[in-house]
Write a structure and sequence with these properties.
This protein has 170 residues and is α/β, with parallel strands linked by helices. The protein is built from five helices and five strands; from the N terminus they run βββαβαβααα. Strands 3-2-1-4-5 form a five-stranded mixed beta sheet.
Length: 170
């Protein structure tokens, strides 16, 4: 089972196995009056640990959309990313990030795909409209993660056969 996260104040999440979505949704981490980012990070960490504990099977890898270094939300996004990596390490789960351009290219064939295109692709996979773009992206992250991890395992498990040296007749 692979977990995909699209982390922000509204965090999309999705679990996939063999390319099929098992469960997905969106979790709201909007700060309440007087809360610091630290409190938000604590709520995120607890939620993620609970999500991992409640997963129908052991999660092999947590994939997440990497944060971009621009705008006022950078501190929040980097903090969430760091906490996701920490939770993965504590739970003995690998983690891997994907750049949004790479995810768009994997999902829609081009690195500059529009949000609407990503949502449409997720709707096809889910058989329903996703809650929002966060859930849609998380599903794509989970599928990308499974694809990347499976490909890496196959590369490690099945080394290329050595080519026989051709003897050149003299």
């Amino acid at each position: 089972m692979y977990l995909g996260l699209d982390m922000a104040t509204l965090t999309g999440w999705g679990m996939v196995k063999e390319g099929k979505v098992i469960t997905s949704g969106v979790q709201d981490f909007t700060k309440r009056r007087g809360e610091s980012n630290g409190i938000l990070f604590m709520r995120f960490r607890k939620w993620l640990l609970d999500l991992i504990d409640l997963a129908p099977e052991k999660i092999k890898v947590i994939g997440y959309e990497q944060s971009h270094f621009r705008g006022s939300g950078t501190e929040l996004l980097l903090g969430l990313q760091t906490h996701a990596q920490e939770v993965a390490a504590v739970c003995g789960i690998e983690s891997i990030g994907v750049h949004s351009g790479t995810l768009k290219k994997f999902t829609c064939g081009g690195g500059k795909a529009h949000k609407e295109d990503m949502i449409k692709k997720a709707a096809i996979i889910l058989g329903r409209d996703p809650i929002d773009d966060n859930e849609a992206d998380a599903i794509h992250v989970a599928i990308w993660t499974e694809n990347e991890f499976t490909s890496e395992i196959e590369r490690r498990s099945f080394p290329k056969k050595k080519k026989k040296k051709r003897s050149i007749p003299r």
